[in-house]
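INTERNAL AUDIT FORM
Audit reference: QA-55
Scope: verify that the stored structure record matches its stored sequence.
Auditor: D.O.
Record contents follow.
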Amino acid sequence: MLIEQLETSNATVSIDAMGCQSDIADQIAKKEGRYLLSFKMNQPNTYDLVDKMFKIKQVHSESDTENMHGKRYEFRECSVINLTV
């Protein structure tokens, strides 16, 4: 797996929803790295858990964007919390 080949100690790894798997996050953490993971509503259990964490933890940073791509409207929102396991 590619993540095993990367030097992630003292680094932050950003992964989109396609790579949002617990084993990937575990590998990064074991190598003393940090990670940013993207979640979508099509994973309801994981999404609900993350949503609850954002309601009880202080948000450190927020950003959003709006775009039109042809006839498709996109709204993206990014919020960051610090969760030490």
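Auditor finding: record pair retrieved intact. The beta strands are 12-15, 34-37, 59-69, 72-81.
Action required: none
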